[in-house]
Amino acid sequence: MTDIRAICGSVPLIPVLTIEDVDRAVPLAQALVIAGLSVLEITLRTETALNAIQAVRAACPDAVVGAGTLRTAEDLTRCVDAGAQFGVSPGAPERLMDAVDGSGLPFLPGCASATEAMRLADRGYSFLKFFPAQAAGGTAMLTSLAEPLSGIEFCPTGGITIDNARDYLALPNVVTVGGSWVAPKALTKSEDWKGIENLARQAVSHLTQ
Ligand code: 3PG
């Protein structure tokens, strides 16, 4: 799949993973994929992130592995080299977007306002990460944007939980949501893969009802 909307739209939730220990990357990814969450965002916030992307790509053929928290053109190059199948950014800085345009990598740029969304749509991006979703106005903000920005769709991320995810998914301009709650730090540290699988299963069943 090369289209970012098709990739993200294939799941109700994209787990946002910040991986501190590369040895935990594959079992973590496997627990999520087996539960039905096959599109994963591994954030470039740790030293092991690129190795984690590489490891999951090699060991989990059923996963679609994206790199998150891309901030610079260099981040883009590094994640493509590691094998990332899509990229996600909390924003859309000019130099990064210029690099994305020439890369062919399916990409989800971030926005938090009408103007930012309109600039990206002007540039050809009509499926956007809405970040930080809860802090930037939540479902009320997205509802307000739906009519004036018809044709622009969102993946809200930031502050999404099992309790509010369905409210987002019910909106006409929301395709899927991103969130870290299915892979909490404590369960990852204790290597409780069954616990993470159960959280992921619970999320899938709750969000696809
Ligand atoms: C992100 O990286 O997109 C967010 O930090 C994830 O937000 P959450 O931890 O509130 O789900």
Topology:
Blueprint: H1 4-9, E1 13-17, H2 25-34, E2 39-43, H3 49-59, E3 64-68, H4 73-82, E4 86-88, H5 94-101, E5 107-108, E6 110-111, H6 114-122, E7 127-130, H7 138-146, E8 153-156, H8 165-169, E9 177-179, H9 185-189, H10 193-207
Parallel strand pairs: 1-2, 1-9, 2-3, 3-4, 4-5, 6-7, 7-8
Helix pairs in contact: 2-10, 4-5
Bound molecules: 3-phosphoglyceric acid.
3-phosphoglyceric acid is lined by residues 16, 43, 68-69, 131, 157-160, 178-181.
How would you portray this structure in words?
Strand 6, helix 6 and strand 7 form a beta-alpha-beta unit. The mean pLDDT is 97. The chain contains ten helices and nine strands. It has a six-stranded parallel beta sheet. It is of the alpha/beta class and 209 residues long. Helix content is 42%, strand content 16%. The protein is globular, with a radius of gyration of 16 Å. The longest helix is centred in the C-terminal third of the chain and has 15 residues. Bound molecules: 3-phosphoglyceric acid. The site of 3-phosphoglyceric acid has 13 residues, from strand 9.
